[in-house]
Structures are given as structure tokens and as C-alpha cells.
Amino acid sequence: MNYISLKNNQTIALSAIPELDYVSFLELNVSSVKNSGYHCVNYFGFPFAGKIKLICCIANDELQTINVSSSVADAKHELPSFTKNNLVFEKFEREIHENFGIAYKDHPWLKPVRFPFNRYNKEAGIADYPFFNIESEELHEVGVGPIHAGIIEPGHFRFICNGEQVLHLEIQLGYQHRGIEQLFLEKKKLLQRTTLAENISGDSVAGHTTAFVNLWESLCSYHPGSDLQLSRTLALELERVAVHTGDLSGMCTDVAYQLGSAVYGRLRTPVINFFQKWCGNRLAKGLIRAGKTNFPFTSELGLELTMLFNEFETDFNSMSEELFELSSALARFEKTGVITNDQASAVGTVGMSARMSGISRDIRFSHPHDFYTELNHRPIIKNHGDVYSRAQIRKEEIRQSIAYIRRLIKNGPAETGKAEQLSSPQPNSFTIALVEGWRGEICHCAVTDEKGELIHYKIKDPSFHNWLALALAVRNNEISDFPICNKSFDLSYCGHDL
Question: Would you list the domain boundaries of the chain?
Fold first, then answer.
């Protein structure tokens, strides 16, 4: 067989991944994603025996497997691109080109992605980014950022407009590249690496840290007990409730609905304060650890969380009834920032950015882990792909997550297992971990050498897929609709830049 099928959080020998000639490698993976039940969860390269080893991971969402294949490329040789055949690979190949200098003779948009410190061409500077432009006396360009008026992270948005109408948006990121992936190789202590995972994207601490510890435990042949799995599942769903609620507040702010902004903003606070009560940090830093927990979930915490949601739901439901019946708010939400099913499929969106357009893509359903194997999760799907759909998904996922949390804590805390010393990582191995963060699909991959040391660590935040969807969503909208479009996606700058 020309690929090997893995389960989520599975470790295999690196040599078990079939190595194909490049043309066969291209044909295999491009043909795979033509099927609606398949999508690319990661595609990356790393230095290997003087060349570049390419690994492509295609999820089969129906069989709950991940098909992994590889090829070896010489950076000196020009290659045909996956992207010419399917746009979902465009950013993966741009990153490979930026990191290693591999040239693609037919890639339609071969531009820098992140401007990492160790990029292949150090003469390519962020100030010289080659923006697309249209020569016309009737059109004008509007540049926004990278420094913004609020607390938003740095990123540059270049609009081409006809009057107020947006014809094209190009999003340039890479302003805060921190070298996170390289630091995973340089930092040797588990606590250091866990801290790195917690800081990949500050609003997705539970998501990225769960991906890391699940991967690391698999790599060390450790099977977590029910107490650890319960804590991680609770943390993921609490993070979803907190951020979705805060985003509804932000969306109300962007359409000048002050009541909604204030009420949803207030409702977010007790949820993140619960994390503070549980582990001493409102973003859940320190909570999730490989092989142990320093903060077991107790009966007292379960009772407090139940009381919190009893109060939360009353005000949340009341406020949501007001918002979703308010004609002035709905006028700004409905048919604004539309992404069609065809567009969402073409660019490979994940998470809420896929589910808003009728695509059932949710790791909790397709590749479940921890207690999601018992929750029988069903993704919430909308079909209009607009701001309104994204708001509805948030509202309904908040209610769904609260129901899951109630079920998880109904029988009291799971029995606390004995903390065990993890064994050394398996040598010459490959591991993949998928988690459904509140934004969507998070993927971590690791490769070890003959001593079990990391030689490559690859992180993919869902924003890596979804920034292009935002650029498409604002087309043919007025530029004044950009803030609400942007907030309705709420993508991560640092999670993209790494």
C-alpha cells in the first residue's frame, strides 16, 4: 500500500511510512482530497539525509483514520505543485518553499507565509511583501495595520476597493514569528515544552496543550487514566464556552449593539474565573500536563460549576433571544461575509469556518479522543456561510458544550490515577495528534531520531486554513463590514505565525 493508516494519537515507526517517488506522492494525495470525506490535516517537510523529507497526512473522516505518506525531495530541483490540482495545499506548499527553497513550477501564488528567522531566503523581508494589485483609475487601495487601534495582534490587510465595495483583500501575516516549532527541539525538558504548547495561541491554551500532551503520551507509550481524560475534555468545552461567549460580545460591539456587548462580555467572566478557581490561571495555563494533573477535578468544583451554569444559562438564553430577534443586528449579520460551500471546500476550511457552509468537519465527531468517545458528539451545521451562521453556531455550541459538561460531571469526578514517570519517547518514530479547539482542527506532529530526541515538531492551528476564507468572505461587501466579518471568524495571528 502507498500509505499507512493511523488512528488519532497513534505512534508508528518513521520507516513504516511508505516513501513514494514525488509524482506518485502528488497523485495519491491530490486524488484523495477529491473525496468529500477526506481532507488534508498536515503537509510539511524537514531536513533528512541531506534532502527534504515530505510527509502528507490526509484524514479519512468516515473511517476515523489518517492516511500518511512521504516522499524525498531535492531542494535544487523544481517540482510540480499539489496546488495546481487542488487549492487546499496552497499554504502548505508556500511554507515548504519559504523554509527550504523548493521551487514549484506551477504554483499560482508562491508568496512568503511567515518570514521565519531561519527561512531559506533571508533577503526576502516582510517590508517587501509582493501584494497583488490592479492598475485602474477607478480603484483605490486601503491598507490597515499591522498596528491596530485596539488590542488586536499585528497583521496587515490590503484592500482593493471600488468606492466602498471590496473587490479583493490580501492578508499579510508573519509579524510576530516566535520560532515556536524550533524551540520544541531546543528545549529538552517536558515542562518547557508544555509551556511552549500553552503559548502557541493564548486563547486556545486547552486546545494546543491537549494536542501536545496526547501526542507526548502516545510517543512515550503512556495511556492516560479517566481523571486526565475528564480534565482535558472539560477544559476544552469550558474554553469553547468562554471564547464563543466573548466573541458574541465582540460581534455585538462591531454592530454597535451595546447591550449585547455588555451582557455577553459579563457572562464570559465567570467562566474564565472558574479556570482561575480550578488551576490558578484564567486561561487554564498549568492545568493540563502529560502523565499527571496538579489540579484534580473535585466534587466541590463540579458543584460550583453546576451552579455557575444555572445562573449563566438564564441570562445567556435571555440575551440570545433579544439578539437573534433584533432586526437592526440581523440586518448586519444576515448575508454579510458569505462563504459558499464550494469556496469553503476549495480552500480547505476547518472547524466553525467549515460548518457554517454545510461541511461536517469536527474532530470530536470524526477522530474522537479522551471523553469524546463517550459523548456521541454531533456537529452543529449551518448552510448560509454568513456572519449570521457563525453567530448561530456560537450560540448553539455554547448550549451544546454546557450540556456535555453537565453530563461529564453528573457522576462526580473520575478516580484519580497515580502519577507515573513517563518513559522516554520512542526512537525513529512519527506521531500525530488531532484536537477540535473552539476555532477548529488543531494538529501536532512529531518525529524522533534514533535516540528518541525530537528532530521535527510541526504545529497547525486552524487559522492556517481559515485566513483565506476571511479574505474571500469580504469580497463584494462594503469595507465598513470588515470589522464584523473579521470578528465573526476571530482567527489567530500568533497561532498562524508561530
Answer: 4-113, 180-460
Determine the Cα–Cα distance for residues 444 and 453; give it in Å rounded to an integer.
16
CA dist list (Å): 49 to 46, 52, 286, 316:
10, 8, 38, 57
Residues in the chain: 498
> Which sign, positive or negative, has the C-alpha torsion 342, 344, 346, 348?
negative
Phi, psi of 341 (to 5 degrees): -60, -40
pLDDT at residue 418, as a whole number: 67
H helical segments located in 123-225: 180-186, 190-198, 205-219
Q: Are 323 and 256 in contact (CB under 8 A)?
A: no
How is residue 220 written as a grid cell?
A: 512515550
Q: Any idea which residue has 488512528 for its cell?
A: 7
Q: What is the pLDDT of residues 87-119, one digit of tens each?
A: 999 999 999 999 999 999 999 999 999 999 889
Q: Reply yes or no on domain 180-460 having CATH 1.10.645.10.
A: yes
Q: What class does CATH assign to 4-113? A: alpha beta
Q: What is the pLDDT of residues 360-389, one digit of tens each?
A: 999 999 999 999 999 999 999 999 999 999
